């Protein structure tokens, strides 16, 4: 465990908590893509099936359980408790455009042709595109609440820190996981445009709005 | 080379 990895995990956890607290305090999930949140719940579910088969560390187990719980609570807030406040009209990204290619690719390009391994691969590919419904929603409405942009910032920061973690691991342990690295780099690229807007607008006290 | 180890990352 290196410093990039731990900071990456903290950043990921912070992003998830920021989103949950925002929904809870405002009693509203306006501007949040429920579809992205469903995809993240699916990502954690398919990736963390190894909770039942492999023990890595207490840290690993606890974090996986927290991520799973938070993901399901978020989905419940959007589609259950605060359903009336959700922006389903603007959350119009077609999930099959992501799920079909991701499923196909996970069968074609994986480490082992076993159920657990294919599901793990599916989760890695799916995570790399899971934020797209959220970014699509922002581009459609042309704006995002500042707190939503903080959520996206920490989610993007987590991805960037994981890349630093992989560079570190490659040099110190001679370890790299090609599937994770390629998908991780693709995923981080999706955040670049957003990072630019975050730095030039949100950090200067302006609301994120698109021209 | 791409050595496959258990997935220890989150």
Structure description:
The complex is a heterodimer of chains A (211) and B (10). Chain A is built from eight helices and two strands, in the order ααααααβααβ. Chain A has 211 residues and is mainly alpha-helical. Chain A has a two-stranded antiparallel sheet with strand order 1-2. The termini of chain A are far apart. With 10 residues, chain B is mostly loops. Chain B contains no helices and no strands. The radius of gyration of chain B is 8 Å and the shape is elongated. Chain A binds chain B through residues 5, 9, 12, 47, 50, 54, 56-57, 60, 63-64, 67, 111-112, 120, 162, 165, 174-178, 180, and chain B through 2-10.
Total strand segments of chain B: 0
**For the terminal residues of chain A, how far apart are their CA atoms?**
42 Å
Multimeric state of these chains? heterodimer
Order of helices and strands of chain A: HHHHHHEHHE
CA gyration radius of chain B, whole angstroms: 8 Å
* Principal-axis shape of chain B: elongated
Put simply, the count of helices of chain B is: 0
List low-pLDDT spans of chain B.
none
Structural class call of chain B reads little secondary structure
Shape of chain A: globular
Mean pLDDT of chain A: 95
Tell me the number of helical segments of chain A per DSSP (H or I, 4 or more residues long): 8
Q: Can you list the strand order of the major beta sheet of chain A? A: 1-2
In angstroms, what separates the terminal alpha carbons of chain B? 22 Å
Largest sheet of chain B: none
- Approximately how much beta-strand content do the residues of chain A carry? under 5%
Question: What are the main properties of this structure?
Answer:
heterodimer; A: 211 residues; mainly alpha; 2 strands; 72% helix; 2% strand; globular; B: 10 residues; little secondary structure
Secondary structure elements and pairings:
The complex is a heterodimer of chains A (211) and B (10).
Chain A: H1 3-26, H2 34-47, H3 58-81, H4 96-108, H5 115-129, H6 132-141, E1 143-144, H7 146-173, H8 178-200, E2 208-209
Antiparallel strand pairs in A: 1-2
Chain B: no helix or strand
């Amino acid at each position: 465990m290196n410093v990039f990895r731990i900071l990456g995990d903290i950043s990921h956890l912070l992003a998830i908590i920021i989103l949950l607290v925002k929904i809870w305090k405002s009693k509203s999930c306006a501007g949040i893509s429920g579809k992205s949140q469903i995809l993240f719940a699916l990502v954690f579910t398919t990736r963390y099936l190894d909770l039942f088969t492999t023990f890595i560390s207490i840290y690993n187990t606890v974090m996986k359980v927290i991520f799973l719980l938070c993901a399901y609570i978020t989905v419940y807030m959007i589609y259950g408790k605060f359903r009336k406040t959700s922006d389903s009209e603007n959350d119009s990204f077609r999930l099959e455009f992501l799920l079909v290619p991701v499923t196909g690719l996970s069968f074609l390009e994986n480490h082992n042709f076993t159920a657990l391994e294919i599901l793990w691969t599916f989760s890695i590919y799916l995570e790399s595109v899971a934020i797209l419904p959220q970014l699509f929603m922002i581009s459609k409405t042309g704006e995002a609440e500042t707190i939503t942009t903080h959520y996206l910032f920490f989610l993007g920061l987590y991805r960037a820190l994981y890349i630093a973690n992989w560079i570190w691991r490659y040099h110190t342990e001679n370890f790299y996981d090609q599937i994770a690295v390629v998908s991780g780099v693709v995923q981080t690229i999706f955040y670049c445009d957003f990072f630019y807007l975050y730095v030039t607008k949100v950090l200067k006290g302006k609301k994120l709005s698109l021209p | 080379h791409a050595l496959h180890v258990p997935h220890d990352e989150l």
